[in-house]
Amino acid sequence: MKSPKGRELITRVITAPGDDAGLFLTNLRVRGWMDHETLAKHRADLVMVALLGDRHGRAAVDYSVNPALGFPDATGPEGSTQPVSHVLPAWDCIAGNMAVTALLAAERHRLRTGQGQEVLFSLKDAAAAMLGNLGIIGEVCVNGTDRPKYGNALYGGYGQDFICADGARVMVIGLTDRQWRGLLKATGTQDAMAQLEARLGESLSDEGARFRHRAAITDLLSPFFARHSVDAFAKEFDSKGVTWSQFRSFAQAVHEDPDLSPENPMFHMIEQPGIGTYPTPASPLDFSRIARQAPVAAPKLGADTEEVLADVAGLTAGEIASLFDDGTVTGPRGDKFFVNAAE
Amino acid sequence: MKSPKGRELITRVITAPGDDAGLFLTNLRVRGWMDHETLAKHRADLVMVALLGDRHGRAAVDYSVNPALGFPDATGPEGSTQPVSHVLPAWDCIAGNMAVTALLAAERHRLRTGQGQEVLFSLKDAAAAMLGNLGIIGEVCVNGTDRPKYGNALYGGYGQDFICADGARVMVIGLTDRQWRGLLKATGTQDAMAQLEARLGESLSDEGARFRHRAAITDLLSPFFARHSVDAFAKEFDSKGVTWSQFRSFAQAVHEDPDLSPENPMFHMIEQPGIGTYPTPASPLDFSRIARQAPVAAPKLGADTEEVLADVAGLTAGEIASLFDDGTVTGPRGDKFFVNAAE
Q1: 3-class secondary structure, A142
Q2: Are β-strands A47-52 and A23-26 bridged in parallel, bridged antiparallel, or unpaired?
Q3: What strands, in cross-sheet order, belong to the sheet with A169-174?
Q4: How far, in Å, CA of A90 to CA of A128, rounded?
Q5: B236: number of Cβ within 10 Å
Q6: Which of A57, B19, B51, B216 has a CA 20 to 30 Å removed from the CA of A170?
Q7: B136 touches chain A (CB under 8 A)
């Protein structure tokens, strides 16, 4: 990428002709030879989507964006003062999906008008927008409150974790009215809850009331779970439409949950050469008119070099050979796999 | 929605003619009169995207999906055995973005072929696919390990939180080679780190080595932060390209970070009637050919009823009046706002 010949090649691949080409998604810094203006000299209708770190062009990663927005401060056991960063790189996952939206929207515009364009956004802006979308900015500005840690309680409705007789931990949800009534019925706590409502002088049919009185509700539900092992109520909870789940570790989830195995048509057993064979997901989206593509093993870094140079850049066999000879490009490299990273 | 007249109206709105119509995104159960087959009798090329709870059609919410997959078990202070659910409804945010991708992809197919279709997916499958995409399923199956809690450490590279002289907490990142070298330079720990490498007999230029030896690295970096307040190094860290951030609460973030204020062109001060005025985000995506739409106040539930009935369903003023009269539809209702929920 540092040699003029390498840059020329990359430009040729990015700006290749065709309706399904000229679509460039990157998280590199888009300056100089790789900016939209320069690339568009080679294909005027180029669509380019660039994901930056923050709007100032500084680098940022999921683990630096997240603490800046306040989530670790609101995560963890009630009463604790230690911030807890979540393990899921959620902002990467969200921004990655937004990049696809940007690409599809810009391609839609190109198809209708013939115009290409550049779409810029940043990991931090994606997160900041979500902070607003979730109502958290409004909550701070209007209520003047700073949300404390609520442990594993669902915020704004009823949802709580319980330890069962067999030591397993479950999460039960009473967010919607249907879920709330189903939970009381399945645990036989309707009468006890009606007595609580009488004591409080307040109906728990309002989700906000359920959140405020969650400790009292939890006290009434706890004995049911302390008396039963998960097996004793799992089927009944499912048949009665209770929204619930069991806390599992990653390994327990992979080994015990059929939804994470090839029993789920989304998963296929795929051999990743040099690593092993394990359930690998296809897209979660199931289109009725387009067969879901099965996942394939990740290619080695450089595995597609020749094919791309021939089919996309349109080079001859002789030209390709000389690029290999002078070291401008390389073929598959030992143990390096191509891995997509959102940062 | 329970009256035949109501259902007929909804069908008419969903299946209205035009290139920009006939696009239906829902998280309702799509059975009976609202399934794709029935609706497609009114518009054959209908595109419909339905987000379910799980693939079996059971209800699920972010807070029930997340424990089932193992994230709370791997989140929280090192050595703790308490699962910690994260506060961000990450799976809702991810699935919501996937729904947009599905809609745009299906509309793209329709534009090229004239065919409509149904796209089904579930919140749990979206999360399960991400578990695979992140390599966690492979990690369990190949290494046979169950990832323990690593506190606020960045997994697989170097990233750690530090308490500064002024009591503030910062996160610093040494994930890429450039970030790692920048961090050592800015903290003046190059020599100390070279001595650590000599003692270990191992180079820390490999990110995996940095993760394994993170405790020793943290020991060498801690004195710098213990000696300095954030103000003392913030500008230098930024100018030297260190990837870092400060832990803030939601309120601190909103009050202190200009990226969450109208200084950021993504945010506008919007008055939400009956609630207040606060920074509200536009889309984080900035298209060069399409001006970014400013955010607007959320409409009251029912505020657009008349307009939709006239412009989309094509009803006359008389027909609309009679629908209001017989209670099939209602206008704006007191304090109920229309809120999009991914579950």
Answers
A1: helix
A2: parallel
A3: A158-163, A169-174, A243-246
A4: 13
A5: 12
A6: B51
A7: yes
Placement of tokens 């500008």 in the chain? B235
The count of other CB atoms within 10 Å of the CB of residue A6 is: 14
Name the H helices within B188-264.
190-200, 207-212, 214-227, 230-239, 250-256
Can you tell me the distance from the alpha carbon of A133 to that of B97, in angstroms, rounded to the nearest whole number? 13
pLDDT in tens, A143-177: 998 999 999 999 999 999 999 999 999 999 999 99
Q: What is the C-alpha to C-alpha distance for residues A47 and A19, in angstroms, rounded to an integer?
A: 11
Whether B149 contacts B80, CB under 8 Å: yes
Give residue B268's identity as a one-letter amino acid code: H
Nearest CA distance, A35 vs chain B (angstrom): 13
CB proximity list for B182: less than 8 A, separation 6 or greater: B240, B241, B242, B243
Question: Three-state SS for A281?
Answer: strand
Token pair of B52, please?
């379910």
- Strand, coil or helix: what is B156? coil
Amino acid identity, residue A149? K
Contact flag B137-A252 (C-beta cutoff 8 Å):
no
CATH number attached to the domain at B158-247: 3.30.1540
Task: Please give the distance of CA A134 from its chain centroid, rounded to a whole number.
Answer: 16
Residue-wise pLDDT tens digits, B44-88? 999 999 999 999 999 999 999 999 999 999 999 999 999 999 999
- The count of other CB atoms within 10 Å of the CB of residue B197 is 15
Task: Give yes or no for a contact between A185 and A111, defined as CB atoms under 8 angstroms apart.
Answer: no
pLDDT in tens, A63-74: 999 999 999 999
Tokens encoding A263: 């029993």
d(CA B94, CA B92): 5
| pTM for the model | 0.94
Closest CA to B172 of B164, B186, B161: B161
β-strand partners of A49:
A25, A119
Calpha distance A49→B285 (Å, rounded) = 9
Domain B4-143 sits in CATH at 3.40.50.10540
Q: Do A118 and B288 count as a contact with CB atoms less than 8 A apart? A: yes
Name which of A71, A76, A121 is nearest B88 (Cβ-Cβ): A71
ipTM of the complex in this document: 0.94
B92: annotated active-site residue: yes
CA distance A85 to A82: 10
Residues of A marked active site are found at 92
Reduced to 3 states, what is the DSSP secondary structure of residue A234? Answer: helix
Chain-chain contact of B280 with A122 (C-beta, under 8 angstroms): no
* Tokens, residue B26: 């829902």
| C-beta separation of A14 from A46 below 8 A | yes
Length of chain B: 343
**B329 and B323 in contact (C-beta within 8 Å)?**
yes
Beta bridge partners of B120: A286, B50
